[in-house]
Amino acid sequence: MSLYEDIAEQIAERIAARGARPGDQIEGELQLANEFGVSRGTIVKALETLESRGLVRREQGRGTFVQGRAALHTTTMLASFSLHVRQEGHRPGGRVVGWRRTRHEPDNPLHARFPKGEELVEFTRVRMIDGVPVGVHRVATTLAIAEGIGLLDALTTNADFSFYALAEQAGIHVAGGEETYSAVLAGDELAGWLELEQPAALLVVERHTVDLNGDPFEAVQAHYVPGRYEIRAERRRRRLPKSGPTA
Questions:
Q1: Which CATH architecture has domain 3-66?
Q2: Strand ranges inside 155-200, DSSP E
Q3: Domain 81-224, CATH number (from 3.30.70.100, 2.120.10.30, 3.40.1410.10, 3.40.50.880)
């Protein structure tokens, strides 16, 4: 992903997080250039990218205005489920179906990246879009992170919380991670939570992320219902070297 595309993604996320409406004006090109520490030309290319998606419109002499909601689009950026759903113009939701405090378990795949002996918190949540169950997230993080961001309170009082938003509000930022994809048949428990008739196939996304220090932040095993939630992954060819003259 190029620099201007990265900035375009961040501006789109900012618009969605604010709940901006069509017609709202966003920051000017010079202000954005100063905020991101880049040239005005880079900001112009980022805004042109957003304009091509229909998210903003640029008016000469006036500025840049929100045109509509950002669609869920192909991206390499890590972002929360709630953010993606809001960008699509829908209402995210959740229902916690279980959580526990535990210590690192060697045979538990969610614990694989955490240090041995670490105290952890696991929770399972049904994720919804406009009230329809679309997936089940099983998440593990350290007890220290859970207590530091107020996760334990959220698990008992607010099933619609955004895990990433809680972390960012506490000054913890996700730096990156990796995902693997597979497909499975739903067990009876998952089928019940997702209101599916058996047999039913599910898309599985396993994700491990780290914070800015490179320390494990979360492990996620997510099961999604095909047709209810769409994930698009971007793939690009590496730039090939120019071939030299042949003998």
A1: Orthogonal Bundle (1.10)
A2: 174-185
A3: 3.40.1410.10
- Whole-number Å distance between alpha carbons of 83 and 91: 10
Give the C-alpha separation, 112 to 122, whole Å.
13
Closest-CA residue to 40 (of 70, 4, 75, 13): 4
**Nearest by Cα to 43 from 21, 28, 22, 25:** 28
Query: So what's the pLDDT on residue 80?
Result: 78
Sign of the C-alpha dihedral computed for residues 180, 100, 102 and 107 taken in this order: negative
Two domains, one topology: 3-66 and 81-224 = no
- For residue 94, give the H/E element and its range: strand 92-103
Q: What is the pLDDT of residues 133-182, one digit of tens each?
A: 999 999 999 999 999 999 999 998 877 888 888 998 898 888 888 889 99
The structure tokens listed for 159 are 């099933």
* Residue ranges covered by each domain of the chain: 3-66, 81-224
CA angle 168, 22, 76 (to 5 degrees): 45
The reply to whether the predicted model has a pTM over 0.85 is: no
Task: Name the nearest CA neighbour of 67 among 23, 113, 14.
Answer: 23
**Separation of alpha carbons 101 and 108, rounded Å:** 14
Angle 217-220-225 (CA atoms, 0-180°, nearest 5)? 150
For the purposes of burial, counting CB atoms within 10 Å of the CB of 53, is it exposed (0-12), middle (13-18) or buried (19 or more)? Answer: middle
Query: Which two structure tokens, joined as six digits, stand for 223?
Result: 């099961």
Provide the residue count of the chain: 247
Quick one: residue 138, left, alpha or beta (phi over 0 = left, psi -120 to 50 = alpha)? beta
